[in-house]
Specification:
Structural class: mainly alpha
Order of helices and strands: HHHHHHHHHHHHHHHHHHHH
Number of strands: 0
Radius of gyration: 22 Å
Low-confidence stretches: 509-515
Shape: globular
Largest sheet: none
Helix content: over 70%
Oligomer: single chain
Strand content: under 5%
């Protein structure tokens, strides 16, 4: 399994998804703006996604992939597929029961999730209704994520990486086609989310069938493998539960702030998610099954090499992205969202949050690159302990900083806790001898930092010249932003080449060696 090829496959499709996501978000911003209806929809969208991270991308995935990859390595495809089918069946049963219970209790759940909305009965009732529409998405996307884990473990990354594109297509279709048939655009979007879950599950199930694997729904049984899965998933579930509580606190705090605060954070996070998704998610997705198989086969040298190349690749891309988003946050938000119902005041408030989020971008990606080092060795407890500590810091700082800085204070707390999480993961892996930075990474990292800093200074200087255009028409603003981004890429590329942070010739060598 070639790590660079896997990362670029996942990253390429994720980039396509993020581009479509920007189109989607621009349409949402122009249609909903950043007021009552937008806040209600974003809470309804965030609600199933919180539990998705718990059931699909959190405990279950972290425990499932190493077991499945280990069975592939030691027992072959038959026993591995049988285990996956049992896990699929039990996950489907648990999620169905859970969704039914939450649907019935939604008004009480929303009182805890967005208490600030209680002062506005219309806003609260709309949020409850939209959340009831979106919440079944949890079932479909969680089962989709399990199938993605199977495909990734057998070295098939493309279909799973393309799955998020379908969500964006469905939501764009809802805005363009369904809005006239519903009470508000938010209703159409909520149904678009739910329908996207069905489309994604069918898409990935068909992709798995093309690989000759059909996951049926056997009678759920607690086999020894399933018990092992749950024993390993439990500590991650605990940590993920703490993480979801932390996100819940963020939402609760934001709901108490002035109207629009939830929307500002949402739009800023969406922009920040572009490099995080393209690089961080791609690396984490590709690295876990690769490390799991190297560890199972006892090839520590290959595991160390893969970990180092993953860190080198992520930092090479995320450091300049973080600097760029920090420096040109205002024009980025203005060009993407400032139209229709989304005002200049909304753009300024969102840009402030984006500039802060950008400071934590390398940390978010490092967490994605370091956590597989634990999960591949079937250690699901240590990352949880670290995550709990980081999340406690996040909650505490959010409560402290929300007063003087409003929604920007919540972003500050998120950034600080992310750096704490990444630092602790790296320190523990290093103490265990499972993270040994090689000479190549140690040599190139400071050069990458210098190249990114020079690029940032160039962008800052270029803002003065671009300002007349950035204050002009939509076309002028978009053109100025394109010149800034393109110029920044050229400056960083040249500095990286001259300093030795990266060279064009490295791509071929890395492609051959990073297995």
């Amino acid at each position: 399994m070639n790590l660079l090829r896997a990362i670029t496959t996942v990253g390429g499709f994720t980039l396509m998804s993020r581009v479509l996501g920007f189109v989607r978000d621009m349409l949402i911003a122009a249609t909903l703006g950043a007021g009552l209806t937008a806040d209600a929809f974003f809470v309804a969208l965030k609600f199933p996604n919180l539990f998705r991270r718990l059931f699909a991308e959190g405990a279950f995935a972290a425990a499932f992939v190493p077991i499945f990859a280990g069975k592939l390595e030691s027992e072959g495809r038959g026993p591995a597929v049988s285990f996956a089918a049992q896990a699929f069946s039990i996950l489907a049963l648990c999620l169905t029961v859970f969704v039914i219970v939450v649907e019935l209790a939604m008004p009480w759940v929303m009182q805890a999730f967005a208490p600030g909305f209680l002062d506005d009965p219309a806003k609260f009732d709309l949020t409850v209704l939209l959340a009831r529409i979106t919440f079944p998405y949890l079932i479909f996307i969680s089962l989709t994520s399990l199938i993605a884990g199977v495909l990734n473990s057998i070295g098939r990354f493309a279909a799973a990486a393309a799955t998020p594109i379908l969500l964006n297509i469905c939501m764009i279709g809802a805005i363009l086609l369904l809005v006239p048939y519903f009470e508000t655009p938010a209703h159409a979007l909520a149904w678009g989310v739910c329908g996207a879950g069905v489309v994604q599950l069918v898409w990935l199930y068909a992709a798995l069938a093309r690989e000759g694997i059909v996951l049926r729904l056997p009678r759920p049984r607690l086999t020894e493998d399933i018990r092992t899965l749950y024993r390993r998933a439990l500590p991650v579930a605990l940590g993920a539960g703490i993480y979801q509580i932390n996100l819940l606190v963020d939402t609760v705090i934001a709901s108490l702030l002035p109207s629009g605060s939830i929307s500002y954070l949402f739009y800023a996070d969406r922009v920040n998610q572009l490099p995080l998704g393209v690089v961080g998610v791609a690396v984490g997705t590709a690295l876990l099954p690769m490390l799991s198989r190297h560890v199972q086969s006892g090839d520590d040298s290959a595991a160390q090499n893969g970990q180092n190349r993953a860190l080198e690749f992520t930092l090479l891309l995320t450091l300049p992205a973080a600097v760029a988003l920090f420096v040109i946050a205002q024009p980025v938000i203005s060009v993407l969202f400032e139209r229709g119902a989304f005002s200049h005041t909304d753009a300024v408030a969102t840009a402030k949050a984006l500039a802060v989020y950008a400071l934590g971008l390398p940390a978010y990606v490092l967490v994605k690159a370091l956590a597989p080092g634990f999960f591949a060795r079937e250690d699901t407890k240590t990352p949880v302990v670290i995550a709990v500590a980081a999340m406690a810091v996040n909650v505490s700082l959010s409560l402290i900083l929300m007063g003087p800085f409003l929604h920007v204070g919540i972003a500050m707390a998120t950034v600080i806790s992310a750096w704490l999480n990444a630092a602790c993961l790296a320190i523990v892996l290093r103490k265990r001898g499972q993270l040994i930075l090689d000479a190549r990474l140690c040599s190139r990292l400071p050069r990458t930092i210098v190249a990114a800093a020079i690029m940032g200074l160039g962008l800052y200087a270029g803002l003065d010249n671009a300002m007349p255009w950035l204050d002009g028409t939509v076309v002028q603003r978009a053109s100025a932003l394109a010149v800034l981004v393109g110029g920044g890429l050229v400056v960083f590329g040249l500095c990286a080449q001259i300093s030795g942070a990266a060279r064009i010739s490295d791509l071929a060598a890395l492609r051959n060696r990073a297995a």
